[in-house]
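Reading a protein record of the kind used here takes little practice once its layout is understood. An example of such a record is reproduced below.
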Amino acid sequence: MTAKTKTSAGLGARHDRTVQEYQHDTYKLRGKLREPTVCTECGAVFHKGRWTWGAKPLDADEITCPACMRIRDKYPKGLVTLKGAFKDDQHEQVTGLVRNAEETEKREHPLSRIMSIETKPEGLVISTTDSHLPRRIGEALKHAYHGELELHYDKDEDFVRVTWTR
């Protein structure tokens, strides 16, 4: 027989358990990097606990940043799909707006980048290195050209799918 024991505060039985990691990201760096550290591929600098753009310090360690690793491995963290005839009729303007949205985000967050822009049967597909950039791109498209915007965040993964249709 087992008996449930109450804690002195009357809050119920104590259950010891191990806490599982909420999200697993292979590209997230384990531990803290020595500062300053520079990405060997893109030149981003890890300084004061975050990645920034700047001049390479002389005594900097070197590593490949998570965004460059994702680009190398072709493993996106977000996808934007553009559907409808409008993307074809105004291709240069639409891709220019997408690139401008990337530049705005990348200026402040060096790990937010477009990996590729490909024409596929489902539409124009843009893959990104982080999960915030797709939403920014989708909202920029909706603000500029209206249309319909759908956002889908995967429950178990830190991955976003954005679909814009016009």
